[in-house]
Amino acid sequence: MSCSRCGFQHNCICHAEPRLNSKARFILLTHPKELGKDTNTGELMLRTLPDSQRYTWDRVNPPAALLDELRAPGNQPWLLFPSDEEHPAAKYQREAGKQPLFILLDATWQEARKMVRKSPWLAQLPRLSLSPSSASAYQLRRNQQTGNLCTCEAGIALLELLGEVDQATQLNEYFQAFIDTFHADKSGHAKHT
Question: Model pTM?
Fold first, then answer.
């Protein structure tokens, strides 16, 4: 029987799960195809960052509660997404008296591009682009593009951007435990240490 929290059957990693905090809030806007995938690393953020939240993306009906959060005067929303000519990246600066609200598209890159293209309300948000200092460690899916990060790695980079290095390190260690355990657990045996 699989662990109800981490989802692993033979190699529970709940002992490695940190309790984090951040001055920012993290919103995962998840494509419906991602829900329930055992390779989804957004789950790691939801488990460890108590002020993170997931909304399911819908092309026709945007999540009303998320729209309200984007308009709330105490929030400073940012869409984590590569810039383009029409939507240049903004340099991250925290506005006094506002809480940073990072919107991460929890999807494949192909799905994420469609989500932004088909959601004008997302296109209106200031874009924040990341320049990863190292290659992605995420190799659980085919067709990974060089330079792209998975959802959890993007969260780690955002924590670093905020100067919350200890929190980023702890989330990265948990992410590495997930990556290191995944294949052994899915093939039905205990991980050799």
Answer: 0.90
